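Sat 14:20. Reprocessing the chain from the morning session after the first attempt stalled halfway. Input below, unchanged.
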Amino acid sequence: MSAASVERPHDDRPLIAEANRIVDRNPGYRVEIIGGQILMSPPPDGAHACALTDLMVPFLAAGLHGAESKVLQGIGLWLPSGAEDYAIPDLALVDADVQEHLVENNCYEPIAFRLVLEVTSSNYQSDLRTKVAAYAGADVPVYVIVDRKHQRLHVLTDPANSEYGNHRVHAPGEQVTLPDSIGAKVTLDVAEILRAGRPVEDERKR
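Finished this time. Tokens:
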């Protein structure tokens, strides 16, 4: 059960209150608080959404959206790095009882998360740097990054002291099998994922 399942009034949480005001004024934007700083991401483009949907397929095919675990988009992860810190990964694999781990502001305890995944957008440095430390500090076992900027897929594992001890970078042409710790065998085709996430204007330049 959650150690803090009662939501606090947002008037007592100034950063969360401001983040929620930003969300209200900017529909479609993702707003997070990491390291005591509010981060704002623009609405994703169509290719981003396509890559995300394609990424869900192997997780669903492996039976990971069922009685033991769930595959969810846009679920909030409460971070231990600050009093009001939270992140909203593009995709997460969580324990099926995740709703028993509610903290506040529609965010859940890190212990319920088996894997988080980000598909980069214009603010790609946040996914490649800021969120690496944030997710490792929350002891999320596996962090996957679809790096559309550099056309690479990153798989980070073994979190400790706000760092991942194992960081592997994969290029198109590789087949990447994720750690068994997520609960089933999931293999990702790097080329297919990156192709799905390539914006139309990039395709026209090829």
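Residues 120 and 147 are 5 Å apart (CA to CA).
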